[in-house]
Amino acid sequence: MIQAVMVMSTQGKPRLLKFYSYQPPEKHQDLVRGVFQLLSARPDSVSNFVKVDAIFGPGAKLVYKHLATLYFVFVFDSSENELAVLDLVQVFVETLDRCFKNVCELDIVFNFNKLHTILDEMILGGQVIETSSEQIMRSVEEIARLEKQSNTTSLIPKSISERFSR
Amino acid sequence: MDNSHEQPLPPGVGAWPPPPSIHPAKFQPNPQPYATPYGATPNNGSNHNAASYSAAAQPTMPFPNMDAGGAQSNQTAHEVSNHNDSAADIESAVQEAVLREQEHLLKMTAEHRAEMANKRGKPLHADNGNVEIGNGYGVPGGGAYYAANMSSDKPKDIADKTKGADDLPEFLRQRLRARGILKDEATNNSFTIKQNVDSPVGQIKAAQELPPGWVEAKDPTSGASYFYNQSTGTTQWDRPGAPLNTMQHQAPPSSSLPENWEEALDQSTGQKYYYNTNTQATQWEPPTAVNPGVAPHAPTNAAVEMAAQNTDIWNSQMQRCLGCGGWGVGLVQPWGYCNHCTRVQNLPFQQYPSYPNNTTHSSSNKNPGNVAAKDRSSAKPPFGKANRKDHRKRNRPEDDELDPMDPSSYSDAPRGGWVVGLKGVQPRAADTTAAGGWGQSKEFLDLVKSIGEARSKAEEDRIISRELDHLKRRLADPDVPRRKMKELLLRLVYAEMLGHDASFGHIHAVKMTHDESLPLKRTGYLAVSLFLDERHDLVILVVNTIQKDLRSDNYLVVCAALTAACRLIGEEAIPAVLPQVVELLAHPKEAVRKKAVMALHRFYQRSPSSVSHLVSNFRKRLCDNDPGVMGATLCPLYDLILEDPNSYKDLVVSFVNILKQVAERRLPTSYDYHQMPAPFIQIKLLKILAVLGSGDKQASGNMYMVLGDIFRKGDTASNIGNAILYECICCISSIFPNAKMLDAAAETTSKFLKSDSHNLKYMGIDALGRLIKINPDIAEEHQLAVIDCLEDPDDTLKRKTFELLYKMTKSTNVEVIVDRMIEYMINITDHHYKTEIASRCVELAEQFAPSNQWFIQTMNKVFEHAGDLVNIRVAHNLMRLIAEGFGEEDEGADSQLRSSAVDSYLRIVGEPKLPSSFLQIICWVLGEYGTADGKYSASYIIGKLYDVAEAHPTDDTVRAYAISAILKIFAFEIALGRKIDMLPECQSLIDELSASHSTDLQQRAYELQALLGLDKQAVENVMPADASCEDIEIDRNLSFLNGYVQQAFENGAAPYIPESERSGVVSVVNYKAQDQQETSAHALRFEAYELPPAASQASISPTTDLVPVPEPSYYKEDHQMSRSQPSGDSLSGEFGLKLRLDGVQKKWGRPAYSSSSTPSSSTSSQQATNGGVSSEVGGSTSSQARESTYGSKRQQATEVSAEKQRLAASLFGKADRKAQAGRKTAKESSSTEKVATANATPQPAKEQVIPSAPPPDLLDLGEPVSPSPPLADPFTQLEGLLGPASASPVVSETPASSTSKTPDLMSIFSDDVQTGVTSGSTEPSLGVNVVAAKKGPSLQDALQKDAAARQVGVTPTGNNPILFKDLLG
Q1: Conformation bin of residue B997: beta by default, left when phi > 0, alpha when psi is -120 to 50
Q2: Nearest residue of chain B to residue A43 (CA atoms)
Q3: Which of B859, B899, B1020, B1087 is the most buried (most CB within 10 A)?
Q4: What's B1334-1354 look like in SS3?
């Protein structure tokens, strides 16, 4: 199962944190720091896998992708296949790119809630449920659309109901 | 949202309606003043323009417009005019800006204007018509405002500013200036004038004159004037013959347009673009590059600068050049400097010289601080680099090789940049558009920006705590609109992500989940699931909402609720939502079904018992119409199958079918990922099959075909293809082996290993590690690849390779491997991994040490560098090893070993910073053997020991060891009759320790003092020389009371029944029963204790610490290993230990050692050991028992051992075999964890053995060599007892020549069984042993498994006949 998804900048700033297995909140920053130290020490052009049992407990592995100024990090246990998770990162990034049209770090900072929406479509409770970025985009757009809709519609019924209630 | 950009080109530019109904920002139907309208009058048009252009280009001229500030001011003028609605008028006015400086020409200008106006039929007063705009007054560029026919109110803002001096009539002004009353830039200007006196008059003329055929007209709706070409019928807002100023700014790029290219404005975006009148092609970029070297007029830098700013200005907030402060469209490059400054200052970005060529996003975007480059919204007119950006976007395929988003850029981190850093973020309109429709406000933006700019952590913390205070206030404020609340909450989430406590807002998040509006609700759920977890108190408030929302009509609400449920619903709350979730499994939306499956899975993980009755739902969902739901269902099924494969065996065929269909692309193509059909589903299925096929020949048989199929179709080019292949290899190495499949797997593995990608190498190493368990030969051909990986700079790969080597270690390569490991270990700082690798070094060294010398040295190295990290038992083990020597036969070698150890320790002991455990070893060895060979004097050693004690005043353990060692030295000296003097400092140490806080140290000190007073005889008794490995019996079972107990029984006392037995806890009963057995065993002991236990030794000497507690499984390991050692046959490659410990047990009366199970060797040895144990149960520590243990061990693989087995068989009778068999049954059955039944079976055997059996029978542990009839019985029994998993191998084993092979097989197939066996084997043994088993840390377990695997792997043919029979034929 996937234990955590992290996006952090190359300066070590968290941009997105999502934990699927329980981690006490006060530990989050330590985890980010630990992972960042690990990743920043790695040279270019090495493998994208790191064993992180020292940070996340026995058997934990991590797959990361370094894109421009961001690290995309997926932490998972032995029940996942490293290469597959690497592709999952790819799916995630591809989806972001679709979603933001040439995504950049700023998008991720400002729209981390959207990132969460995307992640929720991909991973639920630590298990991968969707791996097609197209499909993910479709649902995310649907959500956006319905949100907008419900935004406008909810105002009317609200006023009506208020009138009725008076 | 970007559509207009994607197809931004209205090619119907020419057909624009004559008087535009609305004011176009700028519309240039005729963007080539040179070429078309103006070209008709070349004599007064282009020539003059060219002249003025070159004049303007003189950077040395002190022309206000031309220096750095000038560029900027001009732009401002442009901007102001553009943003004014009366665009056309102002534009034309601005275009004359330069005229302002040439005041002496003003009059003439006025005349010209008048002339022009006359032509158009609009009289114009020269003086009144011009509003002079002073340089530096609001409109920095200054300019003569052409106010001929503008509605006066429009430029008021400008005009107002310039009132005052500039409003004065020109002549008056000149007069004033002459008198020195008016002092402004006018002075400057007059100065300029002098320089420009020779500026051609025709310039101005050109500026004022409309080309022939052009007429100025007024738009009736707006009052703005436009121009109309009578001959062509075209209209435009701009003056046709662009006046001088415009020339300077616009002409160069325009003029550089090639034939047929025209410039136009995209109406929707207000952006300039170019189109080809011939081809109708359109583009954002000017068709030719404006490059300093290529520019037609070879302008100087400054001119190019100007040229670069040619286009319109859209926004007053243009980014400014960090060098010169200039700004303008396209002027400031992404790195914050204009091209000019870049060149002048020789900035590193020069490599991307001028902008039109500079279109690759990687260069334009990668520079931090460039926010402008990031702009995707078409809602607002793109500005700045939007041009390039959009261009790039359309041309994306060309750029793709640089695009890090390119799926093909897999393994290595791409260098390109689609991301800009946050440093120096400039808050501007564009950024808020970046937030898109998801509505982050300016406040949030500012927060992010200030955090990004924070210089220190402290500053950041301050900013955030200020933000938190603000949020706290706002959130508590009831008047805050709900819409706003959402944003506040998101900001709170952001603050919490940065590690700040936002707990005050949790309740607000909970509240927001109650909201009716979907966005708010979703935000609420998001915040709640990020803030809270199932243990949080507030969750109880959410449960109700979730419950309600699960019933919602809106599937998005349901989804949000399910997502939150996954995260928040704890064990107690599961029943509250369970019915709804189950209902949702049949929801019409597949997204909901998928999530419901996952939620159910999550519940199952949380609390299997509460969902167990619903597990069948997963099976049902497997048949879901939607492949996505089916794929999702595989996740819970995988977990379930992992737990209990047997109850899902029936699904094997279904899984295989699904996999087959997926691999054959029967799924909709929407499930393809990078041309692979639903790869993630395939991987999951393969994982499941691996579990189901493990050790199940029949199930595996079903899989071979589809696996082969996947191998054939395998795509090694793509990442995901390799992922599937890797999973296939895992599957094949896990299921029942098939030669053909293994070949395919080996082939793929070698492909991985030969690949250049580190990722694939990593996978290759991993796969190799799996395959060599089955066939160790595979490793041979990849030796070089493996060595390469070992040298690789990639740490991950290195570690993985060490893991592999660890699995591959044999006595032949142990030296190389361990040396490598230690070398690596010294260099790493990661404690966690250091510990791991150190303990592996130790383990390998103990198992395979080729020589004692090497072993000691290796251990020294390990202790020196990781002494504090390794288990203290390893240290004890080393001491014991040195003490026991490596074989009785060769005392000389032993003492040689000891003295070499002493030598090395004396050398090392002075070094600073030795780990505590290492010092303990040193002290102990020096104490025991420091003076043994007479090389060193007692006082020398004592001095060294004293130094140690002094150097570590805080480490009580080390001090205790040191003082004990000193005691021993004294004792030995006294025993030898030599008199040694107490060193004064030593005496003071003793005094100090006698007053120590630690009672242990005190006691030792007092004992030392007491010992000094004893005579030789007494000392010899108390501290016998070289007796450290003599066993000291501690009769924990109080066997000396047996007689008394017996008597009591005879007198009718009720026998004691252990509590656990009374309550019927079976497993404990076993243990207790053993205790009793042991008691009797002691009673039956017939071998004399070798030496009387010395009481003082027990308390003083550290050796005693070792002796009485026979727990460490480490001991067992090497005992066992060493026992197995002497055989010189081929298999000794595996066991070829040269540490000969065979005789050790003889010294150690203690059964524990010989009874130890051998974790590192296969279960078979454990079994045999087990036999040994029971022989001891029988009350013997005799060498015979040991022999049998040894024999049983050997027997598993070698002929030599077979001989020994025969010997053993002839030595020991059938009864033993029977006993052994019985015991074995017990063990097997307990391995299946059916403890109760297990108990029943072994019990008779034990009973038979324990109480009464005659010593010779008991002693032996029976070598289960030849399958004899009695053996068969327990096995048939076994068949019934065993679970299906282990049953089949065991049963199939029976006919094989040796029963001991069974466990080997089992260890291959199932780790679980293996562990089961381990525990089982220890169970029937003595209580002491149980202790040992209990103490074994989980790591130990893991190591045991590994070791077992190794053994299996290395001696394949001999060990696993069944397995390989199958493999080979």
Answers
A1: alpha
A2: B794
A3: B859
A4: HHCCHHHHHHHHHHHHHHHHH
Distances (CA, A) of A123 to A102, A108, B595, B998, B1089: 23, 18, 10, 56, 67
Q: DSSP for B490-525?
A: HHHHHHHHTT---GGGHHHHHHHHT-SSHHHHHHHH
Task: Determine contact, residues B664/B1278, Cβ cutoff 8 Å.
Answer: no
For range B105-110, the mean pLDDT: 54
Min distance A56 CA to chain B CA atoms (Å): 12
B44 secondary structure, DSSP code: T
Which letter does DSSP use for residue A68 in this model? T
| Interchain proximity A125–B832, CB inside 8 Å | no
Q: What kind of fold does domain A2-165 have according to CATH?
A: Beta-Lactamase (3.30.450)
Please indicate whether, in this complex, the C-beta atoms of A124 and B556 are within 8 angstroms of each other: no
Radius of gyration, alpha carbons of chain B: 46
Q: What is the ipTM of this complex?
A: 0.91
What distance in Å separates residue A163's CA from the closest CA in chain B? 17
Which positions in chain B touch A94 (Cβ < 8 Å)? 405, 407
Cα four-point dihedral sign B524, B527, B529, B531: negative
- Residue B1038: its pLDDT value, please? 78
| H/E element, A128 | strand A127-128
Residues 430-489, chain B, touching A (beta carbon < 8 A): 431, 434-438, 440, 444-445, 448
Q: What percent of chain B has pLDDT over 70?
A: 44
Q: Per residue in B1328-1365, is it b (16+ CB within 10 Å) or e — as a string? A: bbbbbbeebeeebbebbbbbbbbbbbbbbebbbbbbbe
Highest mean pLDDT (candidates A146-160, B296-310, B696-710, B1324-1338): B696-710
Binding-face residues of B in 357-416 toward A, CB within 8 A:
361, 365-366, 368, 371, 374, 376, 393, 404-405, 407, 410-414, 416
Which pLDDT tens digit goes with each residue over A38-77? 888 888 888 889 888 888 888 899 999 998 888 999 999 9
Minimum-distance CB partner of A46 among B374, B490, B796: B796
Per-residue pLDDT, B718? 86
Domain ranges of chain A: 2-165
| B920/B25: higher pLDDT | B920
Q: Given pLDDT bands bounded at 50, 70 and 90, which one contains residue B194?
A: very low
